[in-house]
Write a structure and sequence with these properties.
Layout lengths: L5 H20 L5 H23 L14 H13 L10 H26 L7 H32 L3 H7 L8
Length: 173
């Protein structure tokens, strides 16, 4: 069964690559770093569009709203090991997604202001908060990977393979 379409998977792995390059490889303020920032902004716009108007129901934001009841239901499913095999994002994962969108938005705006608007060049507040939010994004990514590995172990659902292939096979119990 198809869980993640090509656009979602391409977006996810492009985001991973761009964030890793910008955080650990490219020098802050360099042209490649700035270009990667523009790529992140483009990726954000693409995912927001696909989340609103896309054709995959599991990718639509309206289908994974992190309400209190949705979180309680999900935690009960995890506890009882009854998470549906065909599920996409869970409500806790949705919180991570929304945090990532906010962080990426902040990073792209502050990076643009600092590098492209003369009035803000060298602004300590922008530089410091840009660095702090990028650190927070990396910490969130580590939490995300840990959560995926734990959920895969607890539920037996092959989450990592699904984000690579897009498909999830239903195993006979």
């Amino acid at each position: 069964m198809l869980i993640w379409d090509r656009l979602v998977r391409l977006w996810h792995w492009s985001l991973v690559l761009t964030v890793v390059l910008n955080y650990w490889v490219l020098e802050g303020g360099s042209d490649p770093h700035n270009i990667a920032g523009y790529v992140l902004f483009g990726l954000l716009l693409a995912r927001l569009s696909w989340g609103i108007w896309g054709g995959n129901p599991r990718a639509l934001f309206k289908n994974f709203i992190p309400t209190t009841n949705a979180i309680k239901t999900h935690l009960a499913e995890v506890k009882s090991k009854t998470v549906p095999i065909g599920s996409g994002h869970n409500p806790i994962g949705a919180l991570m997604i929304y945090f990532n969108f906010i962080a990426i938005s902040y990073l792209t705006v502050t990076g643009f202001l600092h590098e492209e608007v003369d009035r803000f060049f060298g602004n300590d507040f922008l530089q410091n908060t840009h660095r702090w939010v990028s650190d927070a994004l990396i910490i969130a990514a580590c939490i995300h990977v840990t959560g995926v590995v734990l959920m895969q172990k607890i539920t037996g659902i092959p989450l990592i393979k699904t984000m690579i292939t897009g498909r999830r096979e239903i195993q006979n119990q």
